[in-house]
Design goal:
Helices cover about 40% and strands about 20% of the residues. By secondary structure, it is of the alpha/beta class. Strands 6-5-4-1-3-2-16-7 form an 8-stranded mixed sheet, with helices on both faces. It has a 7-stranded mixed sheet with strand order 11-8-12-13-15-14-20, sandwiched between helices. A 6-stranded mixed sheet has the order 17-19-18-21-22-23, sandwiched between helices.
Length: about 650
Amino acid sequence: MAVDSVNWMAGGAQGSGVDTAANIFGRACGYGGLYVFGRREYHSNIKGLHSYFHLRISSREVLANVNDVDLLAAFDAETVVRHIKEVSPEGGVIIGTHQIGTKVLEIPTLPPEFKAEIAKFMKENGVGETLNDWLNHARQRRVQVFPVPYMDLLAEIGKKLGIAQISKITRMINVLTIGVSFALFQYDRALAEKAVRDTFAEKAKIAEMNVAALNYAYDYAKEHFDGFKHRLEKTVVNEERIFLTGNQAVAMGKVLGGCRVQTYYPITPAADESEFLEANQIMKTINGEDEAIVVIQTEDEIAAVNAASGAALAGARAATSTSGPGFSLMVEGLSWAGNNEVPLVITYYQRGAPSTGLPTRHGQGDLRFAMYAGHGEFARIILASGDIQECFYDAAKVFNLAEKYQMPVIHLLDKAMANCSQTYPIFDYGKFKIERGELLKEKDLEGKEYRRFRFTETGISPRVVLGTKNGVHWYTGDEHNEFGHISEEPLNRRLMVEKRMKKLELVLKEVPLEDKLKFYGDMNAENIVASWGSPKGAIIEAIGMLRQEGFGIGFIQVRLLHPFPAAEVKNALTGKRRIIDVEDNYTAQLGGIIKEATGIAPNYYVLKYTGRPVTTTEVHKALKTILTDKAREREVLTFGA
């Protein structure tokens, strides 16, 4: 049963090294020429409760996770209890021997709601009270169990390294699980060693300790375990690749786009982006010169948005980054920027809501909020990325949009993209060119009267940065005239509102089609899926599977959400028999917007709002149920722990 694609998961208590283990595992696979797609799930309590990382590895590009797990590396008993049902037949579970006698219902970190679920499962399936009983039940499904004496191995490692107290090296259990995993997969040990050394590159002593742990575990597994049928084999590639998260892709895209000021107040999952920029504030440009980006952690989100507006008015390409609760605080500043036609960029990572909601979980429930948040009516652009590569290029493009059309631009993302990781060929920086729009210099103003908000046919007024000689003008939160002075006159008010709003017509006219919509599959088929954001990868893989099964189906990804490309969307949907809206919220927000803008309503909805992103497996199943006329109008997806 040697296969070219496997699914590996590591799970344990928050703070136990799950992320580090997954990053080492993903690096090692990438070094072997394999494609990786990773999904990180973690609890909002910071430390102690359950977290896990699911990696899908293949010789071919993969775009999303699936439901099955081929090898579960469990750092604790809770991981087994939560994920054992996901392990596929012929798959395996790695578990410490010191955990096997654990009484499941006495695991202290299990919430009462989940305890009720598993108690019911145990009763209905005749499963005993210990973890060993659960493992025996899994064996009945041909799941292999690989018990590892982690404490004994750590004692041996400690003796070799001269460390008497095992407690000082228990964190290395995460690396032991990697060693066992790669031995079971019969993967190249040297690539795993390289991944460990590179992960701890700045701590040579720590790196060698972990390499020793890796090899102890690898050798133990080779000696004691056999019969595991899944394999990971390296392949030869002739291209450079990069393995990165969505947060990192956005940060890198901002640098490419010329961002030189980033403001933020820490909030999950947006803060990782700003912290990555902080760690790389001095960077080499394409020309090989050193440049810097100023990253400012402000006292709150109100200060963050206003500081970014100030930097943008002073001539810097400036952005702020936040999530739902933070964006709520930014709304007054957003309105101010809309009134003053500020080229402000806001990177908005959606998460589970309302209120604090699910701080570290996924959601797509803020679309209408992003579209309409503010006082009154003003122009804004909303661009939504659907994968990590789009995150990179879009993070650069939004600065061009903001400066060209002189309005706030919201780059709308979500937690799934922020915390997923993926392998790509090195991005092509040459695809992007900075466009600053109608930006005047001192010489352009000589002998002229400058009016910052001059009425023009397009609504776009030539602008200058603050401090430009002869470019005197005013900014206010009130309505203003062409110079920026406060004005409440009816005619001026009407003209100013129309000036700002008609720029949206220009946006729809000039933005390229591929930045408005993308099309996949058979667009001539009678069935079509409409979606936006992170469900993209799962949908593309699902419709690919369905087309191989003989179904005709296409997919339209909406990228420009405001102003909404109604004409293009209507053209794509007209005449379709089944229009299926897929998104991660309760009210089918995109589906409602499509109906409002085009008069065409989806007739099926595939929705998820558990705080976990959709998988290829569940999207494929839901779409097939619809295409075979066995579905309800509304299908709700629930997979994920």
